Amino acid sequence: DGVIDANECEELIALARPRLKPSTIVDPATGRDTVSGLRASYGMFFRPLENPLVERLDRRMAALMNLPVAHGEGLQVLHYPEGAGSAPHFDFLVPSNAANLASIARSGQRVSTLVSYLNDVPEGGETAFPAVGWTVSPRRGHAVYFQHCDASGEVDHASLHASQTVLRGEKWVATKWMRSRPFVSA
Asked: 174 Cβ partners below 8 Å, 6+ apart?
């Protein structure tokens, strides 16, 4: 609770809104970003420490996730309009293509995720973890944290998660991924 305050939520949405584009997934065969029916949302990325708000959030989230701020990828903001959601997926990088292998070589594996909810969703939009039968309802300022690698770097398939369909209203989230080493963009 209280990961991002109400004013920060509104400011982050306002900064992200003009930069939104249809969300993509990484094609496991090619490693390229592609628009897919598996994710019906709009998203954008801030560069790490891009502006005073993002810097404050990057530092706060790194502290919550107990990793150095340099290990964080750029903060991603996603917007799910009514009727949108995402299919179950993992946040860890599957080393099945050259792009993911290169990313892992540069920055290490993604080890954890913090999904912060930027608004209340009247109905739907829960973050579901089907492998463990757990759901988290989106409430402004709250966040869900999960790890997807153990201390030895082995991926945890129980981290499978999805955004359930937004049935009424809209959903805004800010996602922070942390790497096992300092993040170096391509």
From this structure: 4, 12, 57, 75, 76, 77, 78, 115, 116, 118
- Give the Cα separation of 18 and 46 in Å (integer): 12
Query: 48: closest CA among 56, 38, 40?
Result: 56
Average pLDDT of adjacent 10-residue blocks, the chain of 186 residues? 97 98 69 59 95 98 98 97 93 86 94 98 98 96 93 87 97 97 93
Angstrom distance (rounded) from CA 158 to CA 180: 19
CB-CB contact of 127 with 161 (8 Å): yes
Q: Which of 141, 137, 144 is nearest to 5 (CA)?
A: 141
- Could you tell me the two tokens for 142? 């709250």
Q: Would the CA dihedral through 9, 13, 16, 20 be positive or negative?
A: positive
